[in-house]
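Q: What residues go here?
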């Protein structure tokens, strides 16, 4: 285990409050926290929906700066819950432990049945920190730059249009290609097993530092996904001005529309997200269990 980890004294709870399972687990977690002398912090979203009779001591995460007061963040939901938590934590270095309440849970790989065993390991310092690369995107338009961060991916696509779009990609000012396609996915190694995988992109282990570029339904047989080193600065522009609006999505959750004259600059973010990991964790086993890696049809 890493010698940089410490036994926690406090933790935050970040959950998908739309799931009934979250509310079933909240009381046991609060009791566990009291039994282990840990100070729990609840988000305002949780507090606004607390049931009557909730009688536990807690503090509140009113703003992102309150993450500095927590030694780790426990997320309860799915991968989407972890992605939203990661964007909120951003550069603040708070480690994240994901518990999945749904079906897949590739990033949030700890099950409910394993949760308290894993929490016991965290409390005793039997864990390590896995650092995950983050991408930064700057959208340049007439309103000035708008900055976004993604743990999984940025997706640029045709939105509501029925036409393919042309996307010109430069890497460190060198021309890569004009992609005529439904869209383009710019992914981190973490995001390589998300949307990028479904369009034929490669699986990249999370510990690597790389940028994966995968076209969505390219109108050619020659364009394939490409993996670039993480020191590359990418520039994306749109030569075809006949397209009215271009959709831009961050981790499949935050989205807006761009105009053809807008430009997108993408590079590695100056910070990483820290995930709590365990000695017996096995990435390939997770691939087999969650993704059916290596299995043949029966």
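A:
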């Amino acid at each position: 285990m890493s010698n940089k980890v410490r036994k926690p004294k406090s933790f935050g709870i970040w959950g998908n409050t739309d799931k009934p399972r979250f509310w079933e687990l909240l009381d046991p977690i609060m009791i566990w926290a009291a039994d282990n002398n840990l100070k729990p912090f609840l988000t305002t979203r949780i507090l606004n929906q607390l049931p009557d009779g909730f009688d536990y001591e807690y503090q509140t995460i009113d703003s992102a700066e309150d993450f500095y007061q927590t030694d780790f963040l426990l997320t309860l939901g799915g991968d989407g819950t972890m992605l939203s938590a990661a964007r909120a934590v951003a550069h603040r270095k708070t480690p994240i432990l994901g518990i999945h309440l749904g079906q897949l849970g590739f990033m949030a790989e700890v099950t409910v049945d394993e949760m308290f065993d894993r929490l016991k390991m965290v409390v005793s310092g039997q864990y390590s920190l896995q650092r995950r690369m983050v991408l930064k995107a700057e959208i340049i338009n007439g309103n000035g730059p708008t900055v976004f961060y993604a743990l999984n991916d940025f997706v640029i696509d045709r939105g509501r249009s029925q036409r393919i779009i042309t996307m010109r990609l430069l890497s460190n000012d060198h021309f890569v290609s004009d992609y005529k396609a439904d869209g383009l996915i710019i992914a981190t190694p973490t995001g390589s097993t998300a949307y990028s995988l479904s369009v034929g992109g490669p699986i990249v282990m999370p510990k690597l530092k790389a940028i994966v570029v995968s076209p969505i339904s390219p109108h050619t047989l020659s364009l394939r996904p490409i993996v670039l080193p993480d020191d590359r600065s990418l520039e994306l522009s749109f030569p075809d001005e006949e397209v009215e609006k271009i959709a831009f999505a961050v981790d499949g959750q935050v989205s807006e529309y761009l105009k053809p004259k807008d430009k997108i600059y993408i590079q590695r973010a100056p910070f990483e997200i820290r995930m709590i990991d365990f000695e017996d964790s096995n990435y390939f086993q997770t691939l087999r269990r969650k993704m059916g890696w290596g299995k043949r049809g029966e």
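A: Context that may help when evaluating the design: The helical segments are 20-35, 44-47, 79-89, 115-123, 195-198, 283-291. The chain has two domains: 10-127+278-291, 134-271.
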